[in-house]
Automatic annotation (TrEMBL):
<dbReference type="InterPro" id="IPR036049">
    <property type="entry name" value="Ribosomal_uL29_sf"/>
</dbReference>
<protein>
    <recommendedName>
        <fullName>Large ribosomal subunit protein uL29</fullName>
    </recommendedName>
</protein>
<dbReference type="GO" id="GO:0005840">
    <property type="term" value="C:ribosome"/>
</dbReference>
<dbReference type="Pfam" id="PF00831">
    <property type="entry name" value="Ribosomal_L29"/>
</dbReference>
<dbReference type="InterPro" id="IPR018254">
    <property type="entry name" value="Ribosomal_uL29_CS"/>
</dbReference>
<keyword id="KW-0689">Ribosomal protein</keyword>
<comment type="similarity">
    <text>Belongs to the universal ribosomal protein uL29 family.</text>
</comment>
<keyword id="KW-0687">Ribonucleoprotein</keyword>
<dbReference type="InterPro" id="IPR050063">
    <property type="entry name" value="Ribosomal_protein_uL29"/>
</dbReference>
<dbReference type="InterPro" id="IPR001854">
    <property type="entry name" value="Ribosomal_uL29"/>
</dbReference>
């Protein structure tokens, strides 16, 4: 499984980004839970999920800051 490209995520709308952020946080929680209960997990999944989560959070922050700056220019 290759790491997600930011260009692919930029095509998503704000609601889809928010939904994916929640979903990835749940997946990370489940992976940590599996690891704590000594179930078999693939360690690379942590990296992939954290990487994608970071990209989505960055996109969300960029969009919020651009919306804020657009509102300030309008006033």
């Amino acid at each position: 499984m290759a790491l997600t490209k930011i260009a692919d995520l930029r095509e998503l709308d704000d609601q889809a980004i928010a939904d994916q952020i929640v979903d990835l946080k749940k997946q990370l929680f489940n992976l940590r839970f599996q690891k704590a209960t000594r179930q078999e997990v693939k360690p690379h999944q942590f990296k992939h999920l954290r990487h994608t989560l970071a990209q989505l959070l960055t996109l969300e922050q960029e969009r919020q800051s651009s919306a804020t700056s657009a509102n300030e220019e309008g006033n």
